[in-house]
Amino acid sequence: MNPADGNMTTTIHLAPDDPTNPFRHLYHPDHREAAQSYEVTRNITMTFSDVDPDGRPIPGIFEMTQGSAQVGGIYEESITGLHRHLLKIKGTFLLHKVSNVSTLIE
Description:
This protein has a four-stranded antiparallel sheet with strand order 1-2-3-4, with no helix packed on it. The protein has one domain. It has strands at 7-14, 40-48, 70-80, 87-96. It is an all-beta fold. The chain has no helices and four strands.
């Protein structure tokens, strides 16, 4: 997909027994067992653009063209399971292409 054409979305589900679940940590004895943890769901949308919602240029993006070494846009995330209320995050992002190599490790 050409980032200039739209957005990318994904959902990440962290089961109560997932080792990357933020409730599963060594420093709280009540959260060592999966039964004492909660499922966390992250819905992420990255909308590619060269300006923020107020129409200001996103710092670092000079021109988004085919083959550009950098792209950016608006990052939005909603998280359930960490708090009783839905948590929402929104901001700008900038990605830099660091290599043209198609396979880093074989």
